[in-house]
Amino acid sequence: MDNALGIRIHNLRKEKGLTLVELGNKVGVKDSAVSKWEKGRVTNIPFETLTAIAKALDCPVNFLINGDNTIPEYVEGTAEIIDMYSRITPEQRVVVKNLLRTLVQDTNDNN
Predict the structure, then answer these.
(1) Could you read off the pLDDT of 42-95 as tens digits, one per residue?
(2) Nearest 5°: CA angle at 56, between 50 and 61?
(3) Average per-residue pLDDT for the chain
């Protein structure tokens, strides 16, 4: 089993001088969860959690996922949208995702 994600989390945590407990606190999980990620025992980490890990480790999410350290092209308002999204309920997130899918589809249909 490939554990590249866990290795990246481990290495970044060590580079930042964080303990398992400290990273867990920043992400909102127990240190045992962080340990499981790092050891590759849990690989289906929800995107919201990956986002929190990336924020705590000060790296792009795409670096955690695939080792790509390039920063995607900046779109004005992205940080604000991500911040607002992180503050809404799971039910509200479903509504937002459906709205975005509709808007993207409409845009694709018109182009």
Answers:
(1) 878 998 999 999 999 988 888 888 887 665 555 667 767 877 888 899 999 999
(2) 35
(3) 87
State the pLDDT at residue 12.
93
Cα distance between residue 92 and residue 102, in whole Å: 15
Residue that has been written with the tokens 């604000």 in this structure: 80
The predicted structure's pLDDT at residue 62: 84
Q: Which residues of 40-77 are buried (b: 16+ CB within 10 A; e: fewer)?
A: eeeeebeeeebbbbbebbebebebbeeeeeeeeeeeee
Cα torsion 62, 65, 69, 75 to 10°: value is 0
Amino acid identity for residue 19 in this structure: T
- Region class of 36: left (phi > 0), else alpha (psi between -120 and 50), else beta: alpha
DSSP state of 88: S
pLDDT interval class at 1 (50, 70, 90)? very low
